[in-house]
Structures are given as structure tokens and as C-alpha cells.
Design a protein that fits this description.
By secondary structure, this protein is an alpha+beta fold. Helices cover 30% and strands 17% of the residues. The protein has a 3-stranded antiparallel β-sheet.
Length: 102
């Protein structure tokens, strides 16, 4: 049975949420001196969301300080790099006569 598109979206959203929560509680990653590559390894877990990588699943491998290897899902890597850059920019303030839509 294959997952529906909405199940895939929900899984990615949950993954990103876990990354944000985890990276808020840790020091911001230092991005100087690291390189990345696309790999597929078996048995490893993402350092962002802690989900295991599926067999053959491509993901990002970060090599820092020539020895430390971090493996992250694509969306987890995006969260990690945003935190490395100081987080996502704040949204512009709403005009005083406008209310947010929910």
C-alpha cells in the first residue's frame, strides 16, 4: 500500500516540526568549513527528526571538521541551515487596520 499525497505531506510536516523543536533547544550549528553530498545509506537516522532513512532513500550528508558526519532528510537539512543562518526572517508587521487570517 502506498501513502497518499496527504499522508506524505503530513509526515514531512511532522518531521520539520520535530526538527524545529530540537534545533531550538540546541546551539545553532556552525556552518563554516562543512561540505554536503547526496547519499543513501541503510540503518542510519536523521539527526534532525530522528526518523530512520528508508532503504535507498537519498538524503543530505554533512561533513564538518573533516570528521563529523551528520545525515539529514532534505527538509530537515533546510531547517538546519535556516537555524545556522539565525532562523527564518520575521514576517513583516500587519497594517494596524488588518487582522490576521486563520
Amino acid at each position: 500500500m502506498t501513502a497518499s499525497p496527504s499522508e506524505g505531506w503530513a509526515r514531512r510536516a511532522a518531521r520539520v516540526g520535530r526538527c524545529v523543536a530540537k534545533f531550538r533547544l540546541t546551539n545553532k550549528p556552525q556552518v563554516q568549513g562543512w561540505r554536503t553530498s547526496r547519499v543513501s545509506t541503510g540503518g542510519a537516522r536523521c539527526i534532525g527528526c530522528d526518523d530512520p532513512f528508508q532503504p535507498g532513500e537519498l538524503h543530505v550528508e554533512v561533513i564538518a571538521a573533516q570528521t563529523l558526519v551528520l545525515e539529514l532528510h532534505d527538509e530537515c537539512f533546510e531547517v538546519w541551515t535556516r537555524f545556522a543562518q539565525g532562523g527564518a526572517p520575521a514576517p513583516p508587521p500587519l497594517p494596524e487596520d488588518e487582522e490576521p487570517e486563520f
